[in-house]
Amino acid sequence: MPASASGPGDSPASDVVPAPFPARTKQVAGAIKGVKTDVMSISFADKIMVTITQGGRLAQWIHVPLDASNPSNSEQHLPSDTEGGLLPMPHLTPTTILGGTVPERETMGQLYATQIASSIATKNPEENRMVVVGLGLGKIEGDRETFFDIIELVLQCL
Questions:
Q1: In terms of Cα–Cα distance, which of 121, 114, 116, 32 is closest to 72?
Q2: What percent of the chain stands above pLDDT 70?
Q3: Model's pTM, two decimal places?
Q4: Do residues 45 and 125 make contact, with C-beta atoms less than 8 angstroms apart?
Q5: How far is CA 68 from CA 28, 60, 84, 94, 149, in A?
Q6: N or C: which end of the chain has fewer CB within 10 A?
Q7: Is the separation of the CB atoms in 66 and 114 below 8 Å?
Q8: Burial 123-141 (b: 16+ CB within 10 A, else e)
């Protein structure tokens, strides 16, 4: 057998995509209703990962592809006094990949993931990497103030 034979996991050097190492990482912390909340974003060559943790836990993972058509006429920002609230881009489809076995947690997790992906797509309309969100919130609260506080913390990290 020739010494130059390649195995099934080998790929040609032309498939290698140069990427900065280490991956760009940002981290912020804040108090949400008195609970320390840590947010971290890591930008990989093929994915953007955002984690939101309280007490060091990560209980749910959701991904949202951005490679679908990205309408450039969508405007996304924190609401002013005259707006009704945040509206995520309608073409984004979140999928729970781990955790989320409680329906309320899954729904809120997907709402957070879709809003984060919308914010990323609005900030850079050419972005097409997969967004992966890890959530580890102590309590899932559906109130508007908590939602905005968490999203605001995430926006500081993007």
A1: 121
A2: 75
A3: 0.76
A4: no
A5: 29, 23, 26, 12, 28
A6: N
A7: no
A8: eeeeeebebbbbbbbeebe
Answer whether residue 135 shows pLDDT above 80: yes
Structure tokens at 23: 């991956």
- Cβ–Cβ contacts within 10 Å for residue 40, how many? 17
Specify whether the CB–CB gap between 136 and 35 falls below 8 A. Answer: no
Residue 105: what are its φ and ψ, rounded to 5°? -65, -40
Burial class (CB in 10 A: 0-12, 13-18, 19+), 85: exposed
Two tokens, residue 27: 């981290």
Task: Work out the widest C-alpha separation in the chain, in whole angstroms.
Answer: 73
| Residues 29-62 pLDDT 10s | 999 999 999 999 999 999 999 999 999 999 999 9
Give the model confidence (pLDDT) of 6-17 as tens digits: 445 554 555 666
- Both tokens assigned to 74: 């969508």
Is residue 157 within 8 A of residue 41, CB to CB? The reply is yes
Give the percent of the chain with pLDDT over 90. Answer: 54
